[in-house]
Structures are given as C-alpha cells and as structure tokens.
Specification:
The complex is a heterotrimer. By secondary structure, chain A is an alpha+beta fold. Chain A folds into 3 domains: 6-51, Uridine Diphospho-n-acetylenolpyruvylglucosamine Reductase, domain 2 (2-Layer Sandwich); 62-172, Uridine Diphospho-n-acetylenolpyruvylglucosamine Reductase, domain 3 (2-Layer Sandwich); 179-283, Enolase-like, domain 1 (2-Layer Sandwich). Chain A has helices at residues 13-23, 36-41, 77-82, 84-89, 91-97, 103-106, 111-117, 124-130, 227-233, 240-248, 264-283, and strands at 6-8, 27-30, 49-52, 62-65, 68-72, 134-139, 142-147, 152-154, 157-158, 165-172, 179-185, 196-205, 208-217, 224-225. The longest helix of chain A has 20 residues, at 264-283. Chain B folds into 2 domains: 3-78, Ubiquitin-like (UB roll); 87-154, [2Fe-2S]-binding domain (DNA polymerase, domain 1). A 5-stranded mixed sheet of chain B has the order 2-1-5-3-4, with helices on one face. Chain B starts with a strand and ends with a helix. By secondary structure, chain B is an alpha+beta fold. Chain C is 27% helix and 25% strand. In chain C, the strands form 7 sheets. Chain C has an 8-stranded mixed sheet with strand order 10-9-11-19-18-17-12-31, with helices on both faces. The chains are: A alpha+beta, B alpha+beta, C alpha+beta. Chains in contact: A-B, A-C, B-C. At the B-C interface, helix 2, helix 3, helix 4 and helix 5 of B face helix 1 and helix 18 of C.
Chain lengths: 288, 155, 760
C-alpha cells in the first residue's frame, strides 16, 4: 500500500524544475518508478509530491557527439543495453546496463533515475566511473556538470539538490584499443543484488599498462573508484604478479556492510578477488 | 486527488480517474477486473504481475497507474485472438509448463516479450529471459520446454 | 481388488490438464480474485516485538477514521480449551491455535497478529493500523533452540513442561516433566542396544549439523475472505490446501459448529504444506460478523514471511558406527527442532525418517520440540525429513569415504528392504529403496566421468512416509457419455487430472470424457488436506471406487434392459456385454439411462490405512569457486520410487520442483534474524529463491515399484524429492573440496570460511 501523494505531470523541463523548486524536500522527480515505487511501498520514501518527467521532450535520446556519448536521462536501461550506437562506442556500458536486475525492470528504469537513486549496489556507476562519465544536472537555478565519480555522498544520497535533476549523461568514448570488462558477483541467486562488482577499462602498449581505470559498486556506501589500484599499475609492465599486488590495494577503497549477503571481511576479500579478475581480463588477455 | 488517465487495455480504450497511488496491477485487477495479472511479492522479484506496456514486459506492481496514461497494455486476458490461444498459451498447456498456475500469466507475458526479441532462443537465452519470473512449483524445466515448443512451433 | 494386472489405457499417459485453459488465459479464480458487492478490506496490525506482554490495545482512534468499519482482537473470540482435542482426523490445541491467529496476552514473535481492521478501502484499512495504540511490556526474546532449552532462558509459555510423545499420530504418551521449560515435547525411539552396536564398530563418526529456517515460498500470498450471514452461516474463500481443515478450524475458533461454515473452492497458488491451517480466515469471519459485510484479506509478502509457518531451524547430532566390511552397527541421533512460538515442529517425523533408509540392529533417535520467539513453524514438504536426513546422509557419506567404499555400494549393503523394522517399530512393506540406489548406480550420470578442478559429485538417499486418510469422490453420469467427477481436494499441482485419469481407467472411458470439479465443503464428503503426498493416492482410490460403483449400477441397468441375470453381464474397457452378443458401449448405455430408470451417480468414501512409503536417491555434480566459495550446480539426477506414475510429466515436475526447493535449502535460502528477533530479509529481494538461471535441467529417473496397497499401485510422489538434495549437494562439495559442510545453506561466505578452516 502506498501513502497518498500528489502526482504532477509538467509538460516541459522548466515547468518540472519550477515544481521541484516550489516543493523542495517534499517532492521527488519521477520517471520509471522501479526504485522509488518499491521504496514507497516499504514506507522508506514518503514524498508528498511526485513530479513526473515522463513526456518531457529532448531527454530520451542517445547520440554520439564527437568523442562522447550523450545519453538522455529518460533513456531506459534496456535502450542503453541494446543501442547499436552504445555497443559500438562503449560496449562496457551496454554490457553493464544489461546486467541491471531483470529485463522487466530494465524496460522501465531510466538512466537518470537510476543514478539519482544513488543505491550503492546499482551497476551502472561502476562502468560510468571507469569510463570517466559525467552528468549534466539542471535546476531552475541553472546547470552544472558533475563527474559520476563525485555524484554520490552516502547510501542513497547523491550530490543533487532537491530541486535538481539529471538531464543527461556524457560518456567519453574510450580509446579504440582499450579493453574493458564488468564482473558482477552474485553469491546467492542470479537476479540478486551484487555483493561486489567491478568495472575496469585499460590499455596496454607493448606489455606496459598505459592507462587503467577501475570502479566498484556494492562495496562501500557509494560507488568507488580504485585510484590506488590504478596508480600502482599505470606505467608498469603488466604481469600476473603486478595485477595481484595492485588488486590488494582495493582494500583501502572499500568499506562494505556486514549483512546477510556476507560479512564485511568477506566482501572486502571479494573486492580484491574481483578486482584482480577484472584486471586480468582487461590487461592480460592474449590479444591485449 | 484523482487524476484522469486514458489507457488502452487489450485493445480497448478506458478513460479513468485514478488516485496517483494506485498501482497498475491494482487498476487492472480491481477497476478493470482483469484478475489474471497476479501479485506475489510487492518488491518486483516474482514477476507474477508481468504485463506488456507498449509491447515490452514490465512488472505492473511497481508501475503507477498514472504512468500508463496514453499507453497500450496487454494482459494475459488479451493474448488469445479470435478465440485462438496464443502459441505460448498453447505450449504451456501442452507441455505441462505449470502446476499451480499462479506464476503462469507472468511467465507467459515475459515469454511473449522474449520470443519477440529471440524468435529461436537457446536454453540459456530462455533462462536469462525468464530470470525475474519465479516459479516455485516446477523447477522451471517444463517451462523451458514450453518456451522451446512455442518457439519451434512459431518458426 | 487390484487393478494393476492389466495394461493401462489412461494411467501412465500424459494428457493435458482440465484446468489448463483457465490457467493460461488468466481466467482461473484464485482466492485474491473474489469480490462481492459491499466488500470490505481487512488488514492486520502486527507485533513489532519478538516477545512482549500486550498490556492494552486502544482502537478508538482507528475506529473514528472515516471508512473503518470494525476492529477485532483476541478478546473478540471465545476462550478455547488449552489441551489437545480431536479435530478432523488429528488433534489440535485450540487455545494455541487461536493465539497463533491473533495474539492473546503475549506477542511471541515479530509479526504476530495483534488486531485486524476492516475498512471500505485497503488504503484506509492500512492507515487505520497506525492509529491503533498498543501498550507493550517488552520481554527478552530467545531465538536459538539450544539457548531456549537452558535453565533461566526467557520462558515463552509460563508453566510449560516437557511432554513425552509417541509416533507421528500416536499423541501424548508417558509422563510430562516437572520443570518449567521451552522444550515443549520430547520423543525417543529405540531399537536394539546402542552400546552393543558401537562396541562392534571399527569406525565411529559423530558430527553436528545446523539448518536454517526456510519458507515454502509459494508465489501466491495467503488470503481469506468471509461472509457471515444473518442466519449465522459463514461462507469462506481461502487459498488453502485443505478446505475441510479451514472449515473446521474457522468454525471452532468462531464458536460455530463446522456445519455452519462452508468453504468454497478457489485455485491455490502453491502451498507445499504452508497452507494447511487457518491464518486469516477466522479474523475475516469475525470482522464480517461485526460489520454484516463480506471481508477480504490478502497478505503482503512481508506478512507471509513474518506471519505464517516456515520450517524449523534445526540443530542435529548424528553418530554412526560401522564395521570395516561396511556393516553399520549402530546409529544414534538427537534432533533439536525450533517450533517457533507454539509447540508443533515436525520433530517426530524427522526422528522417524532419520535412519529409515537403513536396516540396522541398534538405533536410538531422540527429538525435541522447542519453542522460540520466531513464527510458529508449519509444514513444508516432507516436514522434518530434509534437515534430519541431511545430517544422517552426510555422516553416511563420510563413513563410506573413510572405509573407501563406493557411497552407493555402502548404502546398498545396509539398505532397508521389505520387512526391515524402523526405530519407531514400523515394518516396511514393498519399497523401492534398493531400486532407487541401483537406478542411480546404473545411470549415465553416475557412470560418467566428472573432470575439471574444484568439481565434485555427491549422492544421498531419502525417505518419507506419505499418508493415506480420508477422501471422497462423487461422479455424475451424463446421458452424453461424459462424467462429472466431483472431489474435495484442492488442486495445487494437477490432481484434477490425476484423479480423473484413475477414474477413467477404472470405467474404461477416455480421460477427455471425465470432467473433474473441486467443490465446496457442503457438496462433497469429508476430504483431508492436499498434503502428505496423499491426494493422487487416496483421492485416486476414491475416484476408482466411485467408478466401480458406477460399473455396478451400469451392470444392473444393462441386466434390466436385457432382462437377464447380473452374472450374465460383464463390464470391460467401457463395454457392457450380455447374452446373445448384446453389448453397449459406455456411451450407448448412458444414452439409455434417462428413459430406463434415470441417470445415475457413483460415490465413494475411502480412508486407507496403508500408504505408499517413498524412497529417492539423488546424484549431483557441483563446482566450487575456491576464491569466492560460490557453489554452482552443474548436473542433477533424481531417481525416485514413484509407484505407478499416473501422469509421468506431472510426477517429473513434482520431483523437479522438490529438487529446486531442496537446492534452495542447500545453497540459497534462509531466514536471517537480528538479536531482537527481527527478520532482516522479509522480502523476495533478500530471501533468495532459485531462479531460472540458478538451476540446470533436472534429470529424473522414474522407478516404478508398484504399491500393493493401492488399486493402481500409486505412491505419493510430491514430498520426498526435497529430502535428498541437501546432503547430496553437501557431499558433492566434500568430493570437490574435501570439506564437510555442517551448516546449511552453504552460502559463499560460509563456504570460504570452511575452506580456510579445513584447508581442503
């Protein structure tokens, strides 16, 4: 059962932003609803006003603009997963969006909504951070760009102000010879929340790692970028031993919860294991 | 405060006033008495409430009725055409792809979406495509068989 | 009469189900689908505390809310005797049953129903819950059964002492204890002499095992709708496996004779034992009585987890001794089962099953039923057997390994057979224990090579009783040659078809000529719950007897038409033959009926004292990720003695479903409680049941050892398949990694800890 609330259906972005400005913390922007409706059903979110973004023009496109993919906030997860443009320009992104929950959720959930939800177990931020993506946030006060890496503050808390929404996501196109992988560990069943998941993007030139970015989800109150792991490897010859050592550094980046999906110690261990596996797949592959 | 919506369900246009907190599943079951859409979990894991919204599958117990404004919804009741069962309905019946039958409407609706995308799915594609629809009776084997039979019959 | 002597025309075939079209088109009516003009919606206020005295309930503010029509609490019900009384064919403590439905003086688990509201709209009913003011005195909760048994533990039921009990249906025996305790009941079975047996042993292994609290996980949540009419007759619609149980329990709790209550048939979205008793029906009935309107109640998934009857969490110790030559000399077990808030765990069944697959001279099994501040447990598919036999089959596996014997050979060497006497004193009739072991032994799966690192293969056996009890059938012959078969068994998994097939077989008519219907409790004779794997067995027997009744009447009618003696008329394969080569097909005689004395009906009530014990042996291949502890099922084969497979596809599906649930118990599922007794994972998001992608194809080997105690050789098939998977998976893990899993589910974090401790 849901609590009572008012449902607003603004026709344009400025109207939507005005409503969010007017109602402040009492309002929540609303798109696919897959996350927010579940929270509301469990009384974990009780907004008095929902401001529907559905139907607002110009926020549902995927386009490639020079060196970056631009994905409108209202694009559905499923569309990112299946978009030929995304698959060609940033296959990691398509792969990662394809791992979110189940297809019936992906058909509804939107890119902007998923990010604004700030659930640390959501898959996409891992890939977005590893690819160096940023969001364009808008409010009636103006627009700003926030790196996805800086978008999250705490469990279910993002850097967005209550009157602010994500308008689009910009994803720099990875180098043509960059390799990437998304590894998700599901300890119980296949559509469970991840216990830890790792996205990695890397480039190897003549046996030396020239660039690598690693990000994890479900391993801390927010998605995290494993800069220490990256720093250890960058500029170094790629060996199994170097990767093993570098992966150990992820321990300092993660801060997992003790819960029924595993103890904090276990999850920290898994962060190391999956970081190592992701790096092996990215940097050690035979044709790398 | 009720809001007006217009929604096409199984080919029929309905102009309705709904409370914003009404879930699509409840609209279908209570207001339109289409009780073939089942509810099993409240948190969108079980998939019993799966319907097609503009041709793609979604879990109607986490969709607000107002979100369906202007959309075309297909429920299990709308699948049979001209008195003929849909090939998937036929296959679930013939291949014993059900025991209690409670998950069946959601399974079939997910199956319709899956066969749209993969007309000749492998076993793995079927299992991946139905992930998110729980069946507690069958261990899934006869459901997978039914999907394969329907795909074979359709091709 | 035994009907198995000739080849079957219908039994053993795979026709489509009569309820199939309704279920694939969404037309089938489940409990939650019923609605009536003026209907009210009920919701339940539940205890936020695992253990608390309810000092006061003030519903006045809630009653003032516009749209709220009535509120009930335990005080609205008549007091019930606090003792075991006859109820149907079993017994029940109605005082405990009432307090379980709605808490009396104490809330005994988080989620315990405290008050129920009826309102004109479900949202209003929900809002009203927040306005009910309950004053609690919170008490310390005890969640672990071993802690609960210790002196000084928080006492759930003041004055409770341990009652000694006998076998499953033997009730109380022996003396009650004198010390106050949470150990509600105790049972002990002894055969031979343990000391002698262990003295003969060359090897003795003793281990302790824990299993989690699991939920049946039916996809349809509980519901109950009641309409209390002005003449004090009550109509009930409920998602239940046993409409007669719901009738009797609802009536008695509401202070009515059972004949005043009619339970209407609706489809049921899974049960697995969890829908065999009243849950909300009496609340809906009293709310309806108070308001004069029909009241419908539907549970949320969280309520299902917190407020219905999952299975017992258990702690079991098993000790087995064997000679070097592989002869088992002694078996000893102590089983401690959580009952939840009120006594009634399946500890006795667990104790009776534990060593049943083995023919051993010296056995002792003890069981404890211990109350703790968790939901009162209910039945779940072969109740008690999975946990008990997991412990036993793990130790059996370990002894076979130590003695360097093939695990199947070791089991065969000690296998219970016809005539073997169990620890509880019962002797087996014709059973398929050896046959299932041999079926696995000869299977392509067991003979195949398993290669690859971190992979292992495990086997395990299982036993479950199955039961008989009362079923009725009624059959109306139509002039067009079809028959309406009327039964009182809820059809959860295809019993309409299974009963119609046995009926058609006896009558010698096509399956398609039988139209099976489940009807309400006034329209058919008393029929026990669809549970205990009894419906295809006893319900099929009743259908067979009803068909025989029709045959007798048709022979009489033909003799009358042909003006001959009864002896001169025979009935075979649906054809009546008489003197002078006269004959009628079934269809022809049916056409004659209306103008030769009228249409006829057949009927039967059966109450078989026999049943068909079930054995199974499973083999599974697993792969363990040594770095994460995750266990994947690679291949699974289940061999089961199914008696005569009435509908082989349904039998296979029952086995596959049971295996999937057993794998869930072994690897995925479990209630997680915090220290205060709050369930931390009361959603399907956090309580993980196997999905399509977690299971491989599940191969089934049907072993048909006909049950001589049934006209068609039928044995129950539904429950036993959940028994072997726990140990089979654990034994496969051992084969892969060299570690003994003593706590289930074997989640990856536990597995990793185990691998680090035992080193592999």
């Amino acid at each position: 059962m849901l609590h009572d609330f008012t449902f607003h259906r603004p026709g344009t972005l400025p109207e939507a932003l005005a409503l969010l400005d007017e109602h402040g913390y009492d309002a929540r922007p609303f798109a696919g609803g897959t996350a927010l409706v579940v929270l509301m059903k469990q009384s974990l979110a009780l907004p008095e006003h929902l401001v529907s973004l559905d139907g607002i023009e110009g926020m549902s496109e995927i386009r490639l603009d020079g060196e970056a993919l631009h994905i409108g906030a209202l694009v559905r997860h499923r569309d990112v997963e299946t978009s030929p443009l995304v698959r060609e320009a940033a296959p990691l992104l398509a792969e990662t969006y394809g791992r979110v929950a189940t297809v019936r959720i992906r058909n509804m959930a939107t890119v902007g909504g998923g990010l604004a939800h700030a659930d640390p177990a959501q898959d996409p931020p891992a890939a977005l951070i590893a690819l160096g993506a940023s969001v364009r946030a808008v409010s009636s006060r103006g627009a700003r760009t926030i790196a996805v890496e800086d978008l999250f503050f705490d469990y279910y808390e993002s850097a967005l102000e209550p009157d602010e929404i994500i308008e689009s996501v910009a994803v720099p196109r990875p180098a043509p010879d960059a390799r990437s992988v998304y590894l998700k560990f599901l300890p119980r069943t296949e559509d469970d929340y991840a216990t830890v998941a790792v996205a990695a993007v890397g480039e190897v030139d003549d046996g030396v790692c020239t660039d690598v970015r690693v990000a994890l989800i479900a391993a801390a109150p927010t998605p995290v970028r494993a800069t220490e792991v990256e720093r250890t490897l960058t500029g170094q010859p790629v060996t199994a031993e170097a990767i093993r050592e570098a992966a150990e550094a992820v321990r300092d980046h993660v801060d997992p919860l003790d819960d029924f999906r595993g103890s904090a110690d276990y999850k920290r261990e898994m962060a190391v294991v999956f970081t190592r596996r992701a790096l092996e797949r990215t940097l050690l592959a035979e044709d790398a | 405060m009720s809001v007006p919506i217009s929604v096409t369900v199984n080919g029929r246009l309905h102009e309705l006033e709904v409370e914003p907190r009404t879930l699509l599943a409840h609209l279908l079951r209570e207001d339109l008495t289409l009780t073939g859409t089942h509810i099993g979990c409240d948190t969108s894991q079980c998939g019993a409430c799966t319907v097609l919204i503009d041709g793609t599958s979604a879990k109607s117990c986490t969709v607000l009725a107002v979100q369906a404004d202007g959309a075309e919804i297909t429920t299990i009741e709308g699948l049979a055409q001209d008195g003929q069962l849909h090939p998937l309905q036929e296959a679930f019946w013939d291949e014993h792809g059900l025991q209690c039958g409670y998950c069946t409407p959601g399974m079939i609706m997910s199956g319709v979406d899956l066969l749209e995308r993969h007309p000749s799915p492998s076993e793995a594609e079927i299992r991946r495509g139905l992930d998110g629809n729980l069946c507690r009776c069958t261990g899934y084997e006869h459901i997978v068989n039914a999907m394969q039979a329907a795909a074979g019959g359709a091709s | 009469m035994v009907a198995t002597d000739r080849p079957h025309n219908v039994v053993g075939t795979r026709p489509v189900r009569p309820d199939g079209v309704d279920k694939v088109t969404g037309r089938a009516t489940y409990g939650g689908d019923v609605r009536f003009p003026g209907m009210l919606y009920g919701r339940i206020l539940r205890s936020p505390h695992a253990h608390a005295i309810i000092k006061n309930i003030d519903a006045s503010k809630a009653l003032e809310l516009d749209g709220v029509r009535a509120i009930v609490t335990n005080a609205d019900f008549a007091r019930q005797p606090d003792e075991e009384v006859a109820l149907g064919e079993l017994t029940a403590n109605l005082s405990e049953m009432l307090d379980q439905v709605i808490a009396g003086t104490k809330a005994l688990y988080r989620g315990h129903a405290i008050a129920a509201v009826a309102a004109t709209d479900p949202h209003i009913a929900e809002d009203a819950l927040d306005l009910i003011e309950v004053e609690y005195e919170v008490l310390d909760a005890v969640l672990d059964p071993q802690e609960a048994m210790r002196p000084g533990a928080p006492q759930l039921h003041p004055g409770m002492v341990t009652q000694e009990v006998g076998g499953l249906f033997d009730g109380e025996t022996g003396e009650a204890g004198t010390e106050e305790t949470n150990a509600a009941k105790h049972v002990k079975f002894t055969k031979g002499d343990l000391d002698t047996g262990f003295a003969e042993a060359d090897i003795i292994i003793e281990r302790e095992f824990d299993t989690g609290m699991y939920h049946q996980g039916y996809i349809e949540t509980h519901n109950g709708t009641a309409m209390w009419k002005k003449d004090d007759r009550v109509q009930v619609w409920s998602s239940t496996q046993g409409q007669f149980e719901v009738r009797d329990q609802t009536a008695l709790l509401c202070g009515l004779a059972p004949s005043r209550v009619t339970v209407e048939p609706v489809e049921i979205g899974g049960g697995f034992g969890g829908k065999t008793h009243v849950v909300m029906e009496p609340l809906a009935a009293i709310l309806s009585k108070k308001t004069g309107r029909p009241v419908k109640m539907i549970m949320t998934r969280q309520e299902v987890f917190e407020g219905t009857g999952p299975t017992s969490g258990t702690h079991n110790r098993v000790k087995i001794g064997a000679k070097r030559d592989g002869t088992i000399t002694a078996m000893d077990a102590e089983l401690i089962f959580e009952a939840g808030a009120y006594p009634g765990s399946p500890f006795t069944a667990g104790a009776m099953c534990a060593f049943a697959p083995y023919d051993v001279d010296n056995i002792e099994v003890e069981g404890w039923d211990v109350v703790v501040n968790k939901p009162k447990v209910g039945a779940y598919r072969a109740p008690g057997a999975p946990a008990a036999e997991y412990a036993v089959e793990s130790v059996i596996d370990e002894i076979a390994e130590r003695l360097e014997l093939d695990p199947l050979e070791f089991r065969l060497q000690n296998a219970a057979q016809e005539g073997t006497v169990r620890a509880d004193g019962a002797a087996f009739g014709v059973i398929g224990n050896v046959d299932t072991l041999q079926a696995v032994q000869q299977s392509e799966h067991y003979r195949s090579e398993l290669s690859g690192e971190n992979r292992g293969r495990g086997v395990a056996s299982g036993f479950w009783f199955n039961v008989g009890f009362t079923s009725a059938a009624h059959a109306n012959v139509m002039s067009d040659g079809t028959v309406g078969l009327v039964v009182g068994s809820a059809d959860i998994g295809g019993t309409r078809a299974a009963l119609a097939m046995q009926f058609a077989e006896t009558l010698g008519i096509p399956y398609e000529s039988v139209n099976p219907q489940v009807v309400n409790t006034d329209a058919i004779g008393y029929t026990m719950v669809t549970g205990g794997s009894r419906t295809a067995f006893a319900g099929g027997w009743a259908a067979h007897e009803a068909a025989l009744d029709i045959r007798r009447q048709l022979v009489e009618r033909a003799a009358m038409i042909w003006e001959c003696d009864l002896d001169a008329v025979s009935y075979e394969d649906g054809v009546l033959s008489g003197p002078d080569d006269q004959s009628f097909t079934f269809q022809e005689i049916c056409e004659q009926l209306p103008h030769t004395g009228g249409l006829i009906q057949g009927k039967a009530d059966v109450s078989p004292e026999t049943s068909g014990p079930a054995f199974a042996c499973h083999v599974v291949d697993v792969e363990v990720d040594p770095e994460t502890g995750k266990v994947d099922i690679l291949r699974y084969t289940a061999a089961q003695d199914v008696g005569t497979a009435v509908h082989p596809s349904y039998v296979e599906s029952q086995i596959q479903g049971g295996v999937a649930q057993g794998i869930g118990m072994a690897l995925h599922e479990e209630y997680v409680f915090d220290d205060s007794g709050n369930m931390e994972n009361p959603t399907l998001l956090d309580y993980r049941m196997p999905t399509t992608f977690d299971l491989p194809m599940l191969d089934v080997l049907l072993v048909e050892v006909a049950n001589p105690g049934h006209p068609y050789g039928v044995r129950g098939v539904g429950e036993i398949p959940i028994v072997p998977p726990l140990a089979a998976v654990a034994n496969a893990i051992h084969d892969a990694m060299g570690v003994r899993v003593t706590q289930l589910p074997a989640t990856p974090d536990r597995m990793l800890e185990l691998l680090e401790e035992q080193g592999g």
